[in-house]
UniProtKB/TrEMBL annotation, chain A:
Belongs to the binding-protein-dependent transport system permease family. It comes from Kitasatospora griseola (Streptomyces griseolosporeus). Its main location: membrane. This is ABC transporter permease. It comes from the Bacteria. It is a multi-pass membrane protein. GO terms for biological process: transmembrane transport.
Length: 329, 319
């Protein structure tokens, strides 16, 4: 297990390095000049040249990349002399537009994104797995067909549409909830929920359908396994057969998918966050893009891939822990 | 022989009848499809939108509107530029109303938007099929170092936060041809999903007797790949591509919504939705129309893809 863990960690580090290098290349090969951004619009050519020297932008790409990567672990001082800014560990660059290290900007937004992702995931698991199990156990009935066609319909709803209809009906017409804004859970748990419930529903509806179909397939498959027949044959009650022998193995693929989706959602809920104006990482990304604040855009890209890669790792490790055969792969 | 497998019977609106034995798997699939109401509805919707997109110039000539003609007379400057008249300014001139502020015709913009959405999604689908199939089949068949290299590459591509990276790429890319750029960038991150499936299937096919026989009789590798293995993969590939199309349409809409996709004045549905979000309370029609188009097309492709999967792969899919 230790060997497997080490191998996977090394693979993860390698993947992240590749992603980092590609991201870096994309941003530094065709950028809006960071020196111009640092110095402002009406800056003389000599000043820009000076800033470029001080920021190390005149160095070869590979040197700049080295500084960036080491900066993540050791921090770095950007610029020299009067322009020097300290960017401590972990330094993902410095946003000159907001005069803050990128890491701090991202960490400010992270709680919102985590709240959004976790709440939505809980909701879509409940909806999706519930629907899938019911559908599988009532397989072939009218209820099953209705549920399965229904899930396709719900999954096809564009997020924009769901979000705006919910806002319009619940907030504008019925006035049941306030217009969503982020309130920390620690500050006021009730308001945390009432403000986030609409974004949760929006994201949950989008994903629940996929989970429902997957759960359904998986449960149908497991219920056809010989050990389920054995469980029935030895006279267990149906509830126990389904609950203990059917569902537990059937839900493994669901957990895998959940891990990957959560990883993707932490920094990837751009549209939902934009529609509800929630100050999450996705919104930070969209806003920075509009301002062409490249250090932030790059930082978020890296953070997002970190989330994806590490959630894949967690899922794989869980698998290897449950099923030793997976360690050989 | 024609006894329906359990899943097929459960899914089909009308269970396949046993009066005649369809000859080939394709005929069997077509036969099953014809009995699925949902698939037929989906196919009809797709046909409708494809026709609408192809006939956009004709239809707009009939309606007498252009997608980028500004009609200030259709909007009311005293109401903040909202369309004059009920339901977002529906009138004999503007069949589906006009945009607020500029008064551009929504009917014409939806039609030309359909062109863009479908063009981008179909081209990207074609591209990912090509790349995914070639790389997947190569990795699966040759194995060893080739497989390791391609599989690693796929792993890396799949660890990218695809939406975020697509946006980043599109935002820094030089403006050449937005449509080509979108197709390229979207394909770049979507092919591994098809390649992975193709690779898996190839792995199981390459030890079949007929492949061994072909190899033993000295058939060239390329012939084995494309003559023996590929024909057995077509079903799977068709299903995956059909199911990838709604995702691609959604991604194009998302990218245009976020302002890095198709640039104005070329209309696209995502861009229209993004403009309309501001007006969702005061001019709901402007918002509902492009959303409804997006919904219908995505729904239609999912319905057809789903039915195809049941028809071509009686065991049901295991993803």
């Amino acid at each position: 297990m230790i060997g497997y863990l080490l191998r996977r960690l090394a693979a993860m580090a390698a993947t992240l390095l590749v992603v980092c290098a590609l991201t870096f290349a994309v941003f530094y090969l065709f950028p809006a000049d960071p020196a111009v951004q640092f110095c402002g619009k009406d800056c003389s050519t000599e000043r820009i040249e000076l800033v470029r020297q001080q920021l190390g932008l005149a160095d070869p790409l590979i040197v700049q990349f080295w500084h960036y990567v080491t900066g993540i672990f050791a921090g770095q001082t950007l610029g020299t002399g009067q322009y020097a800014v300290q960017c401590g560990f972990p330094c993902f660059g410095y946003s000159f537009q907001s005069a803050q290290p990128v890491w701090d900007l991202m960490m400010d937004r992270l709680p919102t994104s985590i709240s959004l992702a976790l709440g939505a995931a809980a909701l879509w698991l409940l909806l999706g797995v519930g629907t899938g199990v019911v559908s599988a156990l009532r397989r072939g009935t009218r209820l099953d067909r209705t549920l399965m066609v229904g899930t396709i319909g719900v999954a096809a709803l564009p997020v924009y549409f769901t979000a705006m209809i919910l806002l319009y009906l619940v907030v504008t017409v019925a006035g049941l909830l306030p217009y969503p804004r982020y309130i920390a859970f620690t500050e006021h748990p009730g308001q945390w929920i009432s403000n986030l419930i609409l974004p949760w529903i929006t994201l949950a509806l989008l994903n629940a359908a996929i989970y429902a179909r997957m759960t359904r397939n998986s449960v149908i498959e497991t219920m056809a396994e010989p050990y389920v027949r054995t469980a029935r044959a030895k006279g267990l009650r149906e509830r126990r057969v389904v609950g203990k022998h059917g569902l537990r193995p059937a839900l493994t693929p669901v957990v895998t998918m959940l891990g990957m989706d959560l990883g993707g959602l932490l920094a990837g809920a751009l549209i939902t966050e934009s529609l509800f104006s929630l100050p999450g990482i996705g919104k930070l990304f969209a806003d920075s893009l509009n301002k062409s604040d490249q250090p932030v855009v790059m930082g978020v890209t890296l953070l997002a891939s970190f989330f994806i890669v590490s959630s894949n790792l967690v899922v794989d490790l869980l698998y290897a822990w449950i099923d030793p055969r997976a360690r050989l792969a | 022989m024609t006894t329906p497998l359990p899943t097929a019977a459960a899914e089909g609106a009308g269970a396949p009848d046993t009066t005649e034995a369809p000859a080939s798997p394709w005929k069997l699939a077509l036969h099953r499809l014809r009995h699925q109401k949902a698939a037929l509805v989906g196919a009809a919707i797709i046909a409708f939108f494809v026709l609408a997109a192809l006939l956009a110039p004709v239809l707009t000539a009939i309606s007498g509107t252009r997608p980028d003609t500004v009609d200030k007379k259709a909007v009311d400057p005293y109401l903040g530029g909202l369309p004059r008249g009920a339901l977002g300014g529906i009138s004999p001139q503007h069949w589906l109303g006009v945009e607020p502020l500029l008064g551009r015709d929504i009917f014409a913009r939806l039609l030309y938007g359909a062109q863009i959405s479908l063009l981008v999604a179909f081209s990207a689908a074609l591209l990912i099929t090509l790349i995914g199939t070639v790389l997947g089949i190569t990795a699966g068949y040759f194995g060893g170092r080739t497989d390791a290299l391609i599989s690693r590459f796929m792993d890396v591509m799949m660890s990218f936060p695809s939406l975020i990276f697509m946006i980043a790429l599109l935002s820094v890319a030089r403006d050449v041809n937005r449509v080509l750029l979108l197709i390229g960038v979207m394909s770049l991150f979507s092919w591994p999903y098809i390649a992975r499936v193709v690779r898996g299937q190839t792995l199981s096919l390459k030890h079949r007797e007929y492949v061994e026989a072909a190899r033993a009789s000295g058939t060239r590798n390329s012939r084995i790949l494309f003559g023996e293995i590929l024909p057995n993969l077509t079903g799977t590939i068709i299903v995956y591509v059909t199911l990838a199309v709604p995702g691609l349409i959604g991604t194009e809409a998302a990218l245009s919504f976020l302002g890095v996709g198709i640039r104005p004045p070329t209309p696209s549905w995502g861009q229209m939705i993004s403009d309309a979000v501001l007006y969702y309370k005061v001019d709901p029609m402007f918002f509902i129309l492009p959303s409804a188009c997006l919904f219908l097309v995505v729904l239609a492709f999912t319905l057809v893809g789903d039915a195809l999967r049941d028809a071509l792969d009686p065991k049901g899919s295991r993803t």
